[in-house]
Amino acid sequence: MPPKPLDYESINENVKRAQYAVRGELYLRASELQKEGKKIIFTNVGNPHALGQKPLTFPRQVVALCQAPFLLDDPNVAVLFPADAIARAKHYLSLTTGGLGAYSDSRGLPGIRKEVAEFIYRRDGYPSDPELIYLTDGASKGVMQILNTIIRGQGDGVLVPVPQYPLYSATIALLGGSLVPYFLEETANWGLDVNELRQSVTEARYKGITVRAMVIINPGNPTGQCLSEANLREVLQFCYQENLVLLGDEVYQQNIYQDERPFVSSKKVLMDMGPPISKEVQLVSFHTVSKGYWGECGQRGGYFEMTNIPPETVDEIYKVASVSLSPNVPAQIFMGLMVNPPKPGDISFDQYARESKGILDSLRRRARLMTDGFNSCRNVVCNFTEDIMHDCLCLGAMYSFPQIRLPPRAIEAAKQAGKVPDVFYCLKLLEATGISTVPGSGFGQKEGIFHLRTTILPAEEEMPAIMSSFKKFNDEFMEQYEDHRGYSRM
Amino acid sequence: MPPKPLDYESINENVKRAQYAVRGELYLRASELQKEGKKIIFTNVGNPHALGQKPLTFPRQVVALCQAPFLLDDPNVAVLFPADAIARAKHYLSLTTGGLGAYSDSRGLPGIRKEVAEFIYRRDGYPSDPELIYLTDGASKGVMQILNTIIRGQGDGVLVPVPQYPLYSATIALLGGSLVPYFLEETANWGLDVNELRQSVTEARYKGITVRAMVIINPGNPTGQCLSEANLREVLQFCYQENLVLLGDEVYQQNIYQDERPFVSSKKVLMDMGPPISKEVQLVSFHTVSKGYWGECGQRGGYFEMTNIPPETVDEIYKVASVSLSPNVPAQIFMGLMVNPPKPGDISFDQYARESKGILDSLRRRARLMTDGFNSCRNVVCNFTEDIMHDCLCLGAMYSFPQIRLPPRAIEAAKQAGKVPDVFYCLKLLEATGISTVPGSGFGQKEGIFHLRTTILPAEEEMPAIMSSFKKFNDEFMEQYEDHRGYSRM
Predict the structure, then answer these.
(1) How far apart are CA B98 and CA B93, in angstroms?
(2) Is B323 close to A5, i.e. CB distance below 8 A?
(3) How many CB pairs under 8 A join A and B?
(4) Which of A348, B24, B410, B452 stands the most exposed, by the fewest C-beta atoms within 10 Å?
(5) Which residues pair with B279 in a beta bridge?
(6) What φ, ψ does residue B51 adopt, rounded to 5°?
(7) Could you tell me if B390 lies within 8 Å of chain A, comparing CB atoms?
(8) Mean pLDDT lowest for which of A408-417, B240-249, B383-392?
């Protein structure tokens, strides 16, 4: 009998080609172990609430009221909800036609897109047009839609940083396009070098690929670096020269754990550069409610803003969004609340400010704990320089991405086991400690160099135990595989 | 200067090819008119809450509590919430790790997939495996994912009913596949004729297309027909012979407005048929929280169940789902509640039963009102037979799909205006009355025959005024364009 259409050998090859290590082999094995009763610490994915981070109270109050609008007519509502949450719920319901159960416009509720535009204006100092802001079910869905608009086939390439968040490699594979890697430089705090970009484009062209877009992740995932304004200007200049759309993944813009280099958006830098660049470079910027001190991953809310995209294309993007009817409406309300939180003087302001600061401060401490922990381990290196970017890997985002210097015998053992060396290491780590990480190979890394990614999200009080359990495993692993006849620590 | 990557002329052609009339020209014009202050009755999309349908109280109470879990510790919670809603919220929160703000497994929460499996077992009398049930952000997203797995390129065809819900044509175009139409027979209550299927497949093969899948929409959208068990058996037999995956779009399974032909699922009929067919035919069935008496469109919740799909493919589908991290969690809770509503004896049962029955009874009355209204209009025909399927167009789903017999002079006038004739008619209807419908051409129809689709969702008390406003417009339109020298009513 011939294979059936959904038999493995006859499905879409692009589906098979897509790889997504964040929920790949390590995650699947961790899920199995959890089913068997082992305690697993899921640090594979930036999912703060799953590791005990409490949601901010005010937005949850507002969305709960929007879900139960009949409470707004109940004389007892004030027993459980503060007046500003009640007022805000009424405000958001007034922006809908039919509440949270009605499809919104496929771009999202106009009133919320307006609040997003106002946020961008306050952040960047340049006006933003709500008609060019589309709300999405998380930032990922927006990235996928934009890449789908750009990629026409195998001959179309997208510049993606390596290491990268594998949403990009997976989506490009699914869409049948070509990933054009550019390497971030680990020894320069994962800096982005424009010469490297140039070389990547030249090599791609040599292979017959038309490079059409470039992705930056700022702050970086998994690498945590924050791009400087000067660096962003170089990138935009490069996109202008090479006729590339820039996709600015800025979902970690709230996650900055140093004061020297605050977040600057690609949009602001583009506008600062003035014409012709500010009028010519096509830019799509992405944001989310899943990260920052919100961490509302499960709600699936995000937006993208389009700059210098002609109206005909904006309409096509609208049309394709409309096939999925609308992004989920509760998460649109979360987005409204994120860009328009309680203000000083509001009843809920103090609580909101206290909760937000508490989370960010704790993330900062955890980032430091983790970096120091990794650096105290044999053959594990988590920072390279002693300048202001000392903690280069914990400047931003939610991850630590230490280099693991695997001894040749460990690499050999991995080969014997049929595993990529860092997968081998991470699986052993998982089995020994329950810590579920993602091997660096899932993000891309230079040949022969290995990493792992872990989030900095485990609860602060558990962090010392986790790091000491990591250290014990790692140091024993190194002991086991190091060549005692003279292999020395690098 | 060369075009930029997101200039219209250089974007992905498949994006341009996709058409989605439900939110197409008519909807865009209606939105414009609304902005200008005109009162618009949006009957273009099955969006019940937008037209005043109230959400069911119990599920909203449960989800509100899940959004605000801190209320569960508040001694006053019972002032606003019944005890069974509180218990149920605790139950669903216990199925999560971190509440609604945490990503779930990419297939959805295991506990809810288990509740879905139990629902399917109760409904069909055959066991269902939670591991083969994936929760999605609405049924559409599931359909898109499955089609993406099946379609490898232009040479792959999917049998789609005509008229069809344009999700299918749009998605097939986006994925670069080929739509293979099979016509439903209007004069036989939009029945599905297997000879017609055979002919469609033969014609497609002649063009070099490999037909790999077949879509049925049951109850039909836009046509409302409910497929008989005998008909479903023929379809499954046909899929077996022709080696096709069957996609069973069953999102309207609660929307049945007659008693003679209750909903029967494709899964049940497949299992009833026994081996070899029950073991061989690959089936994916779709369901949603957006339709039925729930109408929770804006929450974006759905699921699909896979039957006879090999584990390697199920894993690939899991992998691709994981790139989007997880379906939104609040809608997963809605799905749990839909498949596991309050039971007799529960505190909230009476209210739940009363609300559900109220909505369904009203939909049934509105369907009848609308059919009768259309049939009273000049050159508008909404049913063809006098047998038990008298109200053939309002047996199921949420739509009415009357045929509009346009006089030759109207067709001529449309041509002059550069419009498809039914688009011309629907635009005039919109301008005159504010009623926003979808032209039949958006769903597909036979050459020279025209329809429109309207939902049956406007509030019952507004229905007489809407139908009389429609009748006034229509009869004047016909008066204007009929040939008074002898053109006679068909």
Answers:
(1) 8
(2) no
(3) 302
(4) B24
(5) none
(6) -105, 20
(7) no
(8) B383-392
pLDDT at res. B187: 84
With an 8 Å Cβ cutoff, are B77 and A74 in contact?
A: no
Report yes or no: A156 and A128 within 8 Å, Cβ to Cβ: no
- Comparing CB atoms, the residue among A20, A67, A245 nearest residue B323 is A20
B299 touches chain A (CB under 8 A): yes
Mind telling me how many Å the CA of A69 is from chain B's nearest CA? 9
Task: Tell me if B5 and A212 make a contact (CB, 8 A cut-off).
Answer: yes
User: Right CATH number for A8-39+353-481 from 3.90.1150.10, 3.40.50.2300, 3.40.50.261, 3.40.50.300?
Assistant: 3.90.1150.10
CA separation for the pair A304, A136 (Å, rounded): 8
Distance of alpha carbon A421 from alpha carbon A303, whole angstroms: 37
Whole-angstrom distance, CA of residue A162 vs CA of residue A223? 9
* DSSP conformational letter for B185: B
Is residue A314 pLDDT above 80, yes or no?
yes
Which of A328, A335, A457 is the best mutation test for B, with the most CBs of B within 10 A? A328
Convert the pLDDT of each residue in A67-90 to its tens digit.
999 999 999 999 999 999 999 999
CA gap A403, A49 in Å, rounded: 27
Q: Is the pLDDT of residue A394 over 50?
A: no
Q: List, in order, residues 6 or more apart from B119 with CB less than 8 Å away.
A: B339, B340
Q: Chain B residue with minimal CA distance to A243?
A: B4
B110 touches chain A (CB under 8 A): no
Q: Contact B12/A152, CB-based, under 8 Å? A: yes
The residue of chain A with its CA nearest to that of B284 is A6
A229 touches B: beta carbon within 8 Å: no
Enumerate the CATH 3.90.1150.10 domain ranges in chain A, comma separated. 8-39+353-481
* pLDDT tens column, A194-237: 999 999 999 999 999 999 999 999 999 998 888 999 999 999 99
Calpha distance B304→B285 (Å, rounded) = 5
Confidence of residue B338 (pLDDT cuts 50, 70, 90): very high
Q: How far is A386 from chain B (nearest CA, A)?
A: 36
Which chain B positions have a beta carbon within 8 Å of A21's beta carbon? none
CATH 3.40.640.10, chain A: domain bounds: 99-339
A23 contact B CB<8A: yes
CB contact set of A76 (below 8 Å; sequence gap of 6+): B76, B79, B80
CA distances from B107 to B53, B189, B307, B327 (A): 30, 38, 16, 8
Report the pLDDT averaged over residues B474-490: 76
Instruction: For tokens 């290995």, name the residue.
Output: A450
pLDDT-derived band at B23, boundaries 50, 70, 90:
confident
Instruction: Please state, in angstroms and rounded to a whole number, the distance separating the CA atoms of residues B384 and B381.
Output: 8
Q: Is some CB atom of chain B closer than 8 A to the CB atom of A65? A: yes
Write the class of the CATH domain A99-339. Answer: alpha beta
Put simply, whether A411 touches B (Cβ < 8 Å) is no
How far is residue A64's CA from residue B337's CA, in Å, rounded to a whole number?
Answer: 17
Residues on chain B touching A174 (C-beta within 8 angstroms):
148, 320, 323
- Average pLDDT of chain B? 93
Beta strands in A269-420 (DSSP E): 283-288, 302-307, 380-381, 399-400, 403-404
Q: Are B326 and B108 in contact (CB under 8 A)?
A: yes
ipTM exceeding the 0.90 mark: yes
CB A457 within 8 A of CB A360: no
Q: Which of B8, B70, B328 sits opposite A310 (nearest CB)?
A: B8
